[in-house]
Design brief:
With about 240 residues, the chain is α+β, with helices and mostly antiparallel strands. It has eleven helices and four strands, in the order ααβααβααβαβαααα. Helix 2 packs across helix 6 and helix 3 packs antiparallel against helix 7. The radius of gyration is 20 Å and the shape is globular.
Length: about 240
């Protein structure tokens, strides 16, 4: 197993950080590494907001569900899907652009996830820790106001980056046989494999050092599918210009 694969397999979310700041030269290298990610048709449909204003950070931490590590980390970033810049550039190049399509939304969201994962991997290669903050989408309209995001730009998630002050255990992933299919989608084994995985996750939660709890993977999914989680997102995206035409 080469060092890159070993690094990728060692990922864990860090929610407790040392009071050390990342030097600016290293931070900029992390962003450049992010920019090297694959991007659909070289559109590069993303923008990254580095939030340094403490009042804004505090507001974002509260909007994200009281996640204090937004304030405690060295650098907090908000990754935004950005179709404004590329469509504006195409318009200046002399065409009548079409805005707000479903494909544009997908492209921008995927591009944003790819650049963020590159940043995360680059950070971890330097001994830093990261934690994605999906809670940014709890109130995306207020987040957009705080960050002055224009139409055709929306906040996908945040990311805490800093020097870890904890070393949590690596959370087990689903068995490969559940997610890797050959030639076509086949799930006959999934029920049994997921049941085994539930036992694995239950044991993990009981053994981990950072807070024990009684739960399984399947149990944790119940709130996600028993209610309309973040049901505001469709109307929000349409209001931001992503009409999903």
């Amino acid at each position: 197993m080469n060092p890159t694969i070993k690094l990728l397999k060692s990922h864990r979310s860090i929610r407790k950080f040392l009071d050390w700041k990342i030097r600016n030269e290293l931070f900029e290298e992390l962003i450049r590494a992010g920019q090297s990610a694959a991007t659909s048709s070289h559109i590069q449909a993303y923008s990254i907001i580095h939030v340094t204003n403490k009042k804004i950070c505090k507001a974002l931490a509260e909007l994200s569900g009281g996640q204090h590590y937004v304030l405690d980390c060295s650098h907090f970033l908000v990754f935004c899907a950005d179709m404004k810049r590329p469509t504006d550039a195409a318009e200046r190049a002399g065409i009548e652009v079409v805005r707000g399509t479903t494909e544009q939304l997908l492209v921008a969201t995927v591009d944003t996830a790819l650049v963020a994962q590159n940043v995360a991997t680059a950070a971890e290669s330097e001994g830093l820790g990261v934690c994605y903050i999906g809670g940014i989408r709890n109130d995306p309209a207020e987040v957009s106001t705080l960050l002055r995001l224009p139409d055709h730009v929306y906040p996908v998630f945040g990311m805490c980056i800093g020097y870890p002050d904890q070393k949590p255990e690596i959370k087990p992933r689903l068995p490969m046989a559940t997610i890797l299919k050959r030639d076509y989608y086949e799930d006959e084994q999934d029920v049994a494999l997921v049941a085994e995985y539930d036992d694995t996750i239950s044991a993990y939660y009981q053994a981990r050092s950072a807070g024990k709890k009684h739960s399984t993977w399947s149990e944790q999914l119940k709130p996600l599918f028993s209610t309309k989680l973040r049901g505001h997102m469709r109307d929000f995206l349409r209001a931001r210009g992503f009409e999903m035409k």
